[in-house]
Structures are given as structure tokens and as C-alpha cells.
Amino acid sequence: MSGLFAKWMNLMGYRSLGQAPKGARFSNLTQSPQWHGNKFENPQPIWSDMKNAMMQSLRASPHATPQQAIPVVTEVKAALAQPLTRDLRVTWLGHSTSLIEMDGTRILIDPVWSERTSPVAWLGPKRWYQPLIPLADLPHIDAVLISHDHYDHLDRTTIEAMSDWDTQFLVPLGVGAHLEYWGVPPHKITEMDWWDATQVNDIDVVATPARHASGRLIPQSNKTLWSGFALIGPAHRVYYSGDTGYFPGFKDIGSWLGPFDVTLMETGQYNPFWPDWHLGPEQAVRAHQEVRGEVMIPVHWGLFELAPHSWTEPAERVLAAANAAGVVVNMPRPGESIEPTHHTTIEKWWPQTEWQMASLSPIIATKSGNPTERFDDPVWEE
């Protein structure tokens, strides 16, 4: 009976909900400057108009999902076995999942290998192509970074498969409760507040502020923190934005931790009716400049449909904004390994589809959660 009950619980997704922080872990996170009352809060509140967002979702682009197979790279294992030329290589595996190899250390970001971004295997946004490399075929990973606990960034079955790895898990405050519940030994988990730093081999990893939210169930909303990460090595620096809306802290990140050889900027899955939750393409380019990035790699697109825009729109709008701003962008195919310090050409691998320009569907963050108060929006030529 207990076995059948466990299977039923798994079918209904209860285990995937994770576990809320409690005990010493909860006491620790309540000391954070980001903790107010009974939850984490952004310095700039996030605004959304869910009524209009829901109506717009009913009129999603007919190209919100690919109509043909995406030209992915399948020989990922062979590519990762090749020696690095300049000791900095990025392999984008779709959405935000990325492998960073820098200064002799391998760091895996927001790994999602499941079929869906959902607590259950039978419902929810489905990936457009299968994982490009089996977990077992990855080279040794020194650290796994989790930016927050939403399903498209923290995947239970992936974490369970990694639980016995000889690796460190670096997560924002409170997220360690999920990992420990799923079998990761506590000594492998490091929880971090904004601006906290820890070391992985010769790399200093700093949790950086972000403007977002958290939670795997509505009652758990914002009981765990969200963050980006700066990776500072002896020879290279990498910045990952995590999920975030635009906020003035990018300039602080650039001043204190930059410049960065490469940034991985969240660019897709946006909507004008929730402009503070995600950057959108134009503000991603702006944030890349403010953190003092050299080469920008767009992430958080190209694998799941989580917003009503055309699936190719983030790429097209990033290129338009980057060209106007003089920003160097790399657009690797899913599974492609690039060395961004000398790989600066763009091969347009995605199809030509209809998409909306920034002037028709602008993503402009609010200053204080009030839609009448907006940050100044740069003018992009398209």
C-alpha cells in the first residue's frame, strides 16, 4: 500500500512541490535585508495586470511554438571533450540551462532535463526538443547554480539524479530546503543572500540582486529568495542575470563586480502586462551594458512556451537592440559550445517568422510597481 501511495503522490506532483524552509534554515533567512514580514520582497515591487495578460494569452502568436524541428547540436559530448582555446567556454542547452567552463572550473546553471516545467509529468509546458546530452555524459561538474525555485529553473528529477554527484549546489536563501528534501546532502548545499560570496576552486561566486519572485505553490510564494550570479575567476568574469525585471541595481553589479567577458542575459518569456517579471530583449541589452559586459548571450528562450510572443521574437529583438547600441551578441544554437572572447559572428539558425517589434509591444519596467511610473526607455532603431 505504501508503494502505491507513493506512486499516487508522485503522479499528483506533491514531491515536486518541494519543502518550505523551516527550523534553523528559516531563522537564518529571516535575518536577510530582503525579508519583510513573512516573505522576501524586491526593493522595487513587481506589477502585473493579470486580467489583460490572460486575455492576451488567448491571442498568442501562431508562432509561439516552432512549426519545424529546431536545428540543435547533438554532438555535445564530443564538443565538451575538446580542449579549450582560451579557457572560457559556454554551452547553451536551451532556456536558461548553460554550462560554463572557465579558468579550470565547470559550473552548470539552472539544469532542467525534464520533459515539462511542471510539478507533474503529464501537464504543463513541454520542451521542444529532447535534452541534448544525457546527464551521465556530462563531464565532472564542480558546482550547480540555481537562480530560484520556479519549475523552469529548479527541476526535481534533475536534482534527484544529481544528488550523489561530487559537486556543490549554490542556491539563494531557502532553496536548499527543496534540495535536501530531494536527497542532496546538506554539506553540499550553500545558501546565499544577495552579495554573499563563496568559492569554487579558483572561482569566486557572488549571488547578485534580481527583481523577480519565487515559489512552487501559491502558499509558498516568495518564501525563498531569487538571484543572479557573478563568476569571478583569475582570468575571466561571467555574469548570469537569472530571471529578473529591469532595476537600477545592474549598475551596482557592473561597478562592483564587472567588467564581464560574457553575460548570460534573460531575454525571452515576457509580456507587456507583466513587465517587471522579465527583462525583455531591449532591457536585457541595456542591463548587459550596465553590468559592463563585453559579449552577450541571450538565454531564457528557445525551449519552452511560457509567454504569447513568437518563439523567434526574442532573438530578432535582441539583435535589433544590440545593433542600435553597438553591443556584441553571440547566438549559439541549442547545444553549441562557443568561446565568446573570440567567437563573435552570428549565424541566424532560427526560421523567419512573424514577430512584433519593440515599438508595437514594448517591455518597460515600472519604478515602484506602479504602471504610471516607468524607467526611462532607450529608443531602439529596428
Number of helices: 9
Instruction: Write the element-wise H/E pattern from the N-terminal end onward.
Output: HHEEHHEEEEHEHEEEEEHEHEHEE
CATH architecture: 4-Layer Sandwich
* pLDDT < 50 stretches: none
Overall shape: it is: globular
Tell me the domain tally: 1
Beta strands, count: 16
- Strand order of the main beta sheet, please? 8-7-6-5-4-3-16
- The CATH superfamily is Ribonuclease Z/Hydroxyacylglutathione hydrolase-like
What percentage of residues falls in helices of 4 or more residues?
Answer: 10-25%
Q: How big a fraction of the residues is strand?
A: 15-25%
End-to-end Cα distance, whole Å, is: 62 Å
Structural class: alpha/beta
Mean pLDDT: 93
Key descriptive features of the protein:
18% strand, 7-stranded mixed β-sheet, 382 residues, Metallo-beta-lactamase, Chain A, 9 helices, alpha/beta, 16 strands
Description:
- By secondary structure, the chain is an alpha/beta fold.
- The chain has one domain (2-338): Ribonuclease Z/Hydroxyacylglutathione hydrolase-like (Metallo-beta-lactamase, Chain A, 4-Layer Sandwich).
- It contains nine helices and 16 strands.
- The chain has helices at residues 2-11, 23-29, 50-57, 76-80, 156-162, 176-181, 249-257, 280-290, 313-325, and strands spanning 35-36, 39-40, 88-92, 98-102, 105-109, 143-145, 168-172, 189-192, 197-200, 203-208, 228-232, 237-240, 260-266, 293-299, 328-329, 337-338.
- The strands form three sheets. The protein has a seven-stranded mixed beta sheet.
- β11 and β12 (237-240) form a beta hairpin.
